[in-house]
UniProtKB/TrEMBL annotation:
Originating organism: SAR324 cluster bacterium
SUPFAM superfamilies, per the entry: Dimeric alpha+beta barrel
Pfam family membership, one: AsnC_trans_reg
Residue ranges occupied by any Transcription regulator AsnC/Lrp ligand binding domain in the UniProt entry: 6-77
Residues forming coiled coils: none
Protein name stated in the entry: Lrp/AsnC family transcriptional regulator
Amino acid sequence: MVTALVLLNIERQQIKLISQQLVDMQEVSEVYSVAGRYDLVAIVRVKNNQQIADTITVKFGELNGITATETLIAFNTFSRHDLEHMFSIGE
C-alpha cells in the first residue's frame, strides 16, 4: 500500500463541497481542514504510485475549486497504535 498526503489550496467558498467530494473518493481515507498555508489535507491510500498519479491528476483535477496541490509520498508509517503493539508483551 502506498500512502500520500495531499496538501490542497481551495477557493474559500468551495472548502466544504471539495472536502465532501474528496472523502467520497475510494482512494481518499481522510480529509482534514487545517490552519496555515493550506486549506485541506487529504490522505490517499492506494496500491501503487500510478494510482496516486491518476487520483491526483485525474480525479482531483476534475474538481472545480482546487487552486493548488502539493503531494507528499509516505515512506514509512508510525503511529501510537503500531508502537504500542510492537512493545506489548502478551497483553
